[in-house]
Design brief:
Number of helices of chain A: 0
Shape of chain B: globular
Radius of gyration of chain A: 13 Å
Largest sheet of chain A: 7 strands, mixed
Distance between the termini of chain B: 41 Å
Oligomer: heterodimer
Distance between the termini of chain A: 36 Å
Radius of gyration of chain B: 14 Å
Structural class of chain A: mainly beta
Largest interface: A-B, 23 and 22 residues
Order of helices and strands of chain A: EEEEEEEEEEE
Number of strands of chain A: 11
Largest sheet of chain B: 6 strands, mixed
Number of helices of chain B: 0
Helix content of chain B: under 10%
């Protein structure tokens, strides 16, 4: 169990640019989740996958956000035409196949700053 | 829609004392899971304790225990013998089991300060 890995740890970008984040879940975990967290707030659900299928996407998510998990392993989250309001910590988490009992295992997050 | 509410933005406890963090939730599901997560400053979120709604017995993990009141939709976390390392943000989370969605819903968190 090497843990959930997220890259990069920090990203600073200018408004209007596109950014892409990567998440590598724990290898035997089949569900992968993306959350967004702003300072002093709880994680806000963005989307989740079971294997390569994206099962749910938050209605709060605009069309500028897209996520993929092409082979059911790692996942990418892309934000197009970034806005200052996108500045946040983006958290990835995975859960085990034994989903009845599994809890989320989180990565360290990617902190995005849009200037 | 399910919601999770943590009404205590910040709590303080003296080292070695006991503190209780509150959480209430709203759901129409009969089967679900509840969790407490800890997020130390600038570190990743880790699971503290979990509770299955169908189990009447309250979960316990060493110094951490919960008071699960299903009818009242209340799920509080008790930390006994508080240690300096317990200082962190604590998040209560809900995950349904019967609605067809398996997303986890988090509260806004409680910042716990431990005083030496």
């Amino acid at each position: 169990d090497t843990g959930v890995s997220q890259n990069p740890r920090h990203k600073i970008t200018k408004r209007g640019q596109n950014v892409t984040f990567r998440c590598d879940p724990i290898s035997e975990h089949n569900r992968l989740y993306w959350y967004r967290q702003t300072l002093g707030q709880g994680p806000e659900f963005l989307t989740y996958f079971q294997n390569e299928a994206q099962l749910e996407k938050s209605r709060l998510l605009s069309d500028r956000f897209s996520a993929e998990r092409p082979k059911g392993s790692f996942s990418t989250l892309e934000i197009q035409r970034t806005e200052q309001g996108d500045s946040a910590m983006y958290l990835c988490a995975s859960s085990s196949r034994d989903f009845q009992y599994g809890a989320l295992h989180f990565g360290n997050g990617t902190r995005l700053t849009v200037t | 829609a399910q919601t999770v509410t943590q009404s205590q933005p910040e709590m303080s406890v003296q080292e070695a004392e006991t503190v209780t963090l509150s959480c209430t939730y709203d759901t129409s599901e009969s089967d679900y899971y509840l969790f407490w997560y800890k997020q130390p400053p600038s570190r990743q979120m880790i699971l503290v304790i979990r509770q299955e709604a169908y189990k009447q017995q309250n979960a316990t993990e060493n110094r951490f225990s919960v008071n699960f009141q299903k009818a009242a939709k209340s799920f509080s976390l008790k930390i006994s013998d508080s240690q300096l390392g317990d200082a962190a943000m604590y998040f209560c989370a809900y995950r349904g089991q019967t609605s067809g969605t398996y997303k986890y819903i988090f509260g806004t968190g409680t910042r716990l300060k431990v005083l030496a």
